[in-house]
Amino acid sequence: DNTPFLTSLYPTLINTLGSHHPKVTSRQAAVSDIILAEEELFIGALENGLKALEKQLANLANTVSNEAGKRIVPSEVVFLMQDSFGFSADLTDIAARERGWEVDVQGTRV
Q1: Distances (CA, A) of 12 to 4, 8, 29, 34, 92
Q2: pLDDT one-digit tens code per residue, 54-79
Q3: Which of 23, 53, 65, 81 could form a disulfide with 87 if both were Cys (CB 3.0 to 4.6 A apart)?
Q4: pTM, two decimal places
Q5: Are 94 and 78 in contact (CB under 8 A)?
Q6: What angle do CA 77, 93, 48 make, to 5 degrees?
């Protein structure tokens, strides 16, 4: 489920830290709106990045492997995912591994 949930935690934050950080309580509506907007942007970027990665992996199927026969995501794809979709190398690595791929870590180091 990709429903935003962080704003539901905001009342707990207010109860816990509100007395130490007055702006947390005085700007509740604005802070809540910002949290929701940021979470929605992140969810959208994550969904778009996963779709783009799926397309990249489909294009690479049966074409890229190492000596051990493991499927490898080339560093160029990792760069494309970050540059074009804002999908970090870490996220690409995690998502690729979940799908049985490994990322060319050596090629991604600058």
Answers
A1: 16, 8, 15, 17, 33
A2: 999 999 886 766 666 788 899 999 99
A3: 81
A4: 0.76
A5: no
A6: 65
Q: What is the maximal distance between C-alpha atoms in the chain?
A: 60
Transcribe 17-76 into DSSP letters: HTTT-HHHHHTHHHHHHHHHHHHHHHHHHHHHHHHHHHHHHHHHTTT-B-TT--BEE-HH
- 9-37, pLDDT tens digit by residue? 999 989 998 889 888 888 889 989 999 99
Q: Looking at the chain, how many residues does it have? A: 110
Ramachandran region, residue 37 (left: φ > 0; alpha: ψ -120 to 50; beta: rest): alpha
Alpha-carbon span 39 to 76, nearest angstrom: 28
> Taking the C-alpha atoms of 49, 95, 61 and 41 in order, what is their torsion angle to the nearest 10 degrees?
-10
Q: Which helix (H) or strand (E) holds 103?
A: strand 102-103
The sign one gets for the Cα dihedral 52, 58, 62, 63 is negative
